Amino acid sequence: xxxxxxxxxxxxxxxxxxxxxxxxxxxxxxxxxxxxxxxxxxxxxxxxxxxxxxxxxxxxxxxxxxxxxxxxxxxxxxxxxxxxxxxxxxxxxxxxxxxxxxxxxxxxxxxxxxxxxxxxxxxxxxxxxxxxxxxxxxxxxxx
Length: 143
Prior knowledge:
single chain, 143 residues, Jelly Rolls, eight-stranded antiparallel β-sheet, 10 strands, disordered N terminus
């Protein structure tokens, strides 16, 4: 009976641990400037990741930062609060410790999600790329 109880605790703890890695970053800071608004570690077996944006989610621009390993970033889609989307074509390899150019959104807009479209790049260390989404707040309505 003790073994079963310990096994159930282990499974429950493992499930909680894995669930925490998929929880979106909640943006609480509304000050002007760049803020990390989401992140993921890309997989070798997928080519799309959807990153939800929660909280203070009005941004004027978006950029993507890559660490740990390079990726071939085809494009990313920005899903707005009004269900419109903007596709930002990249079409190049982003090296580790690199970033995309800034994608202007045409004024501050509510961003619900950023969808990455990529291929992993073969490299010798087998590390997975860590990708961060950064959003620029300008707060034009507060000036």
